[in-house]
Amino acid sequence: MPLTLRPFLLFALAALAFGSAQAQEEAAQAEFVYEIDPYYTNAGYNIPLTDKPIPTIESASEAVIYRELIKDSVIPRYMTVEVSMYPMPILGTYLKSHHRGLYDSGSIDGGNFNIIESLTAGFQEPWAVSMFFGNVAKLKRPGDQRIGNNYGYTGYLLSTGTKHIRNNIPVSDDWFELEWKIKGQLDYSDKKLSWSFRGGTKIHRNPEVNDVYYVGLTRNNTELHSPGLNWLDNTNFEFRMHFLQLTGKLVRTELIAGKKLPLPDKGFTPTLSAGFIWTSPEEYSGTLRNISDNTLTFVIRPSIEF
């Protein structure tokens, strides 16, 4: 393990130990949360930094939830230690590195389009360890008695890892990321909603991966009893832009949108998302900058939500 990551991971382990000790005294305040998804799977532990319990925002309005989460978000009152991994991007790098024949068999149109690349593209790292400092709130609809992992977060996130993914090829790189974000998740019997709005900077120790600033927006909505043709319900979208730190030039844009078909009688919701990733050759330097033109990658993400 690189020496640069050891202090960060040791601190994360110490935080988990501290949180476990607090959980024995204040079991309602330190809580474990997780999310399982083929593209983004994570597990986190909410640790209070003060004696104040996690507040509850009771509202059915997204605007109200956002407003309440942003209030008093300057001074952190909670810490979350999170470990995340990205199964489909990991699968893409594995197939390209260890089963190149199978990977290349997905090529269409003379090699200009690869279905495996389209299914696994969109994440530039296979895993991450993160520490969040900010405010955490439980989210609740008026009159709803269901207890679940309905949380909202606002604050600062520090993440790190040791690998960078470029065109489904893992590259050695100790990277560090600092961002401000507002994110949340609602999970009810008839409705699911998650969102993430963020901006930050990403720094790479590998000199051939250029440092960037970025902004990102994500929203994922499921309404089990909404008409299928409603254009806003049962949709998801992701939008992200990267700018070079040195010049401010746009070097990467991601736009992915999808539509869902809820099947409440079956207990699951099929989803099909599609979009593109545009990249500039200036996203990289040295040997990693092996192209001279902009590239456009078509992205397909089928999934099932239970």
Strand and helix map with partners:
Elements: H1 6-25, E1 31-35, E2 41-48, E3 56-58, H2 62-70, E4 78-85, H3 87-98, H4 100-104, E5 107-108, E6 113-114, H5 115-120, E7 127-140, E8 151-166, E9 169-187, E10 191-204, E11 212-223, E12 235-244, E13 250-260, E14 269-279, E15 295-305
Structure, explained:
- There is one protein chain.
- With 306 residues, this protein is α+β, with helices and mostly antiparallel strands.
- The protein contains 5 helices and 15 strands.
- The strands form 2 sheets. Strands 1, 2, 3, 4, 7, 8, 9, 10, 11, 12, 13, 14 and 15 form a 13-stranded mixed beta sheet that branches.
- The longest helix has 20 residues, at 6-25.
- The two termini are 37 Å apart.
- The model is unreliable at 7-28 (pLDDT under 50).
Characterize this entry briefly.
It is built from five helices and 15 strands. The chain is globular and about 55 Å long.
- What structural class do the secondary elements suggest? alpha+beta
Low-confidence stretches: 7-28
- Give the termini distance in whole angstroms: 37 Å
Average pLDDT:
85
- Alpha-carbon Rg, integer: 20 Å
What is the assembly state of the chains in this entry?
single chain
The profile of the biggest β sheet is: 13 strands, mixed
Q: Give helix and strand order, one letter per element, not per position.
A: HEEEHEHHEEHEEEEEEEEE
**Strand portion, in percent?**
over 45%
Number of strands: 15
As a percent range, the share of helical residues equals 10-25%
Shape: globular
Please give the count of helices.
5
